[in-house]
Amino acid sequence: MTWKHPSSPVTKKFKVQRSTVRVMATVLWDAKGVILLDILPKGQCINAAQYCSTLDRRERPGLLRRGIVLQHDNATPHSANLTLQWLQRYGCEIFPHLAHSPDLTPSDFHLFGPLKRHLGGMAFEAECDLFNELKNRFAILTLISFEWVSIRCCRAEKNA
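Below the sequence we write its predicted structure tokens.
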């Protein structure tokens, strides 16, 4: 405690706040794990052309075959004519999920929930450090979560 004269000005205490950086990413995954992680450059938004370009990247050979069921919400890039034409060309079926549905999608529950809990409170010096942490974390989540999901799905199929 310090003594001050009553007429001396009050010292201001500045609060240091960390700025938050939002990262836009497209994550494609199935029961075997993350197929593709596409992180957009800072300030870039996803549109139908970008989304179709991401879908065209084949990280796992033989992935695009007839009978693929894709779950995504009805956001503009997902419901644009260009995207619908792409999905029709590859014979993909859409399993709809409303953008503002109170139900969690599997991605929210198995991918983004654990990711947010892991990254909470972390600070990164550079964007590339954040991207590397995202890639590493998705690899870890793949090993842990999807094994559990696969076992659970197999058990559910046997009980049905």
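Helices lie at 48-56, 76-79, 81-89, 106-119, 127-159.
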